[in-house]
Amino acid sequence: MNCKWLKVTQNVQKGIQILNSLEDSKFEPFLKRIGTKLRLQEIEIFTEEEKMKLQVIFKVDEDTLMIAIKTLIYLHKRLLKFIFMPVNLHKDLINIGFKTEKAEFIVKLWSSEVSSTLNDLVCNSMDKDGNKQTFSWKLNTELSSDIQKKCKIPKAYLSLSNDKTEQDMELSHSDLYTMFIQFEAIQNELDSSVL
């Protein structure tokens, strides 16, 4: 019942059971609303008045509704940290206990979120002048030289370019490793600022 990208606790299992019991026609707008509010990074997803209306619509008490909302928030945040094939995501959701219809709604929402994110990345790959930026790399290994016999010296060649300029870099293993550590630190800061 577990999958690699999600830890299925008792609370998550209970939340999945509650979500499965919700009417399909009302579940999809409920799911979309949560996804939209999370994308906008709003703290309050539903007002107290809206929560009371949802309790009536879904015929649940406040605690049950809150478990359903928290489960979807947790699931949404976990989904956006991984890249899936939609078919595999659908299978994972069914394996952890979602009904087929609910899994389809979640995959549909995830697909739209990911496609908009990817479109933003494509738009951001253009610089201010509208030039497309590219990144390429290759790895060369110098097997030996007159100075050092039978010595392998790996060198990475990175190229950053757009329509007007090109920047080439030759990096040794230690230079490349240092750059990797810096990129990882930047990624960690970006991840922490999103959460």
Strand order of the largest sheet: 1-2-3
Structural class: alpha+beta
Major sheet details = 3 strands, antiparallel
Give average pLDDT, whole number.
81
Rounded radius of gyration (Å): 24 Å
The backbone outline, from C-alpha atoms, is elongated
Oligomerization: single chain
Helix proportion of residues, in percent? 55-70%
Distance between the termini: 26 Å
Number of helices: 7
Strand content: 5-15%
Q: Which spans of ≥5 residues are poorly predicted at pLDDT below 50?
A: none
Element-level helix/strand string: HHHHHHEEEH
Give the strand tally: 3
**The number of domains:** 2
Protein name: COMM domain-containing protein 10
Organism: Papilio xuthus (Asian swallowtail butterfly)
InterPro entries: COMM (IPR017920), COMMD10 (IPR037361)
Domain COMM: 131-194
Structure description:
- The chain has seven helices and three strands, in the order ααααααβββα.
- Helix content is 58%, strand content 13%.
- It is elongated, with a radius of gyration of 24 Å.
- Helix 1 packs across helix 4.
- It has two domains: 118 residues, no CATH class; 60 residues, no CATH class.
- Strand 2 and strand 3 form a beta hairpin.
